[in-house]
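FAQ

Q: What does a record look like?
A: Structure on top, sequence underneath. For example:
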């Protein structure tokens, strides 16, 4: 009778006593934990590969403004789902919201799928790499883990496809086609060949008077069903989602920027800025910068600022470092007074300037006696050495006040 083969006294190092499936789950969770610690660097690496591999996401004029944040969140959700059981569905939920959002923005489905495929490949490669580095004796178990990882990737990809298609079918084709072109114009496209093609696709004249409106705040958002192209009182408005609100490219025709301001909705939870008029589509990017300067000059919600009314403040916003120095140079002695007096002097100066130098109107605005206004203004003149009767001194005081206010907004 042949002798039976003896069982080894111990298992060779590296072989788990668990079944391959159980061992694969453990090593995958361990790898995900290691990768999670390196998530910021890993996400940046994956993002760099996406930009180099995708003609859409690699174009800074087309790239969604929230791409970096979106990539970090998607990878964090996916990796966490391999560590914590109750988070397994989060990456699928995020994939659904991403598909919907990209469809609303007009990003082609093929580009979104390409991004998810690259994200999946990068994640799998990174998981294998950390296992090879940290516990190479367990690396054979990644062959069993592959099925689970790629099933999750396939699930998220399918959700992106379905969400994008559903949203795309509900969103007017006109808006979806226009948004990528409008974004390129707003981000500064100036090549005449490209811009002339955009003009044809958008049905807009290449050379005409345009202005841009930038709206910011939660109330500035528009629903996906809202029209992307409207005509109000002869003004042609083209709406485009922006990172923190909305942008509007307006074909002015013979209308003024003030006419445009009258048809733009304002209210609580939003503020806006309007550029000066520019002479063609190739200047829309510059107009967007002007609109954002006007927007940054706003101090309260519901305000819609026209750059033409905020030119001095725009200079202040362009160089905040010089603005701070100028504010201290002109208003330094006032800023050094006690907080109560400082606020009284500055608010009185602001009211007097807003009332076109009328002491009577300023006292109504401040709810105080006319002599109180005069005494505060004289005190301000003594402290600053500048006289409100001298136009050049008034310019200095007005600019310094704008600079001081801008500095306070930056700190808040």
């Amino acid at each position: 009778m042949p002798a039976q083969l003896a069982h080894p006294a111990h298992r060779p190092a590296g072989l788990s006593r668990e079944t391959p499936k159980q061992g694969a789950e453990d090593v995958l969770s361990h790898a995900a934990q290691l990768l999670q610690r390196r998530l910021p660097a890993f996400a940046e690496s994956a993002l760099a590969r996406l930009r180099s591999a995708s003609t859409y996401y690699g174009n800074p004029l087309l790239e969604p403004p929230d791409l970096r944040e979106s990539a970090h969140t998607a990878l964090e959700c996916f990796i966490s789902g391999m560590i914590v059981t109750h988070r397994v569905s989060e990456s699928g939920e995020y994939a659904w919201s991403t598909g919907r959002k990209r469809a609303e923005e007009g990003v082609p489905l093929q580009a979104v799928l390409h991004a998810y495929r690259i994200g999946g490949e990068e994640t799998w490669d990174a998981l294998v790499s950390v296992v090879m580095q940290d516990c190479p004796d367990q690396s054979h178990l990644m062959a069993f883990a592959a099925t689970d990882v790629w099933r999750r990737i396939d699930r998220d990809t399918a959700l992106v496809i379905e969400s994008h298609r559903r949203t795309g079918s509900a969103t007017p084709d006109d808006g979806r086609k226009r948004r990528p072109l409008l974004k390129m114009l707003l981000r500064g496209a100036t090549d005449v060949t490209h811009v002339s093609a955009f003009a044809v696709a958008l049905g807009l004249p290449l050379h005409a008077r345009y202005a841009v409106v930038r709206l910011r705040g939660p109330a500035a958002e528009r629903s996906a069903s809202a029209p992307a192209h409207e005509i109000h009182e002869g003004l042609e408005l083209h709406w485009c989602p922006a990172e923190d609100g909305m942008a509007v490219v307006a074909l002015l025709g013979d209308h003024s920027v003030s006419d445009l301001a009258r048809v733009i909705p304002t209210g609580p939870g939003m503020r806006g800025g309007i550029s000066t008029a520019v002479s063609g589509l190739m200047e829309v990017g510059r107009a967007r910068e002007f609109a954002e300067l006007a927007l940054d000059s706003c101090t309260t919600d519901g305000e819609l600022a026209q750059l033409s009314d905020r030119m001095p403040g725009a200079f202040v916003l362009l160089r905040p470092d010089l603005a701070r120095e100028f504010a201290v140079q002109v208003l330094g002695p006032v800023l050094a007074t006690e907080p109560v007096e400082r606020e009284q002097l500055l608010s009185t100066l602001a009211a007097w300037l807003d009332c076109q130098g009328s002491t009577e109107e300023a006292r109504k605005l401040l709810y105080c006696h006319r002599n109180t206004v005069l005494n505060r203004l004289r005190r301000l003149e003594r402290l600053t050495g500048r006289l409100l009767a001298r136009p050049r001194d008034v310019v200095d005081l007005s600019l310094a006040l704008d600079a001081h206010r801008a500095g306070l907004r930056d700190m808040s």
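Q: Is there anything notable about this one?
A: The first helix runs from residue 20 to 37.
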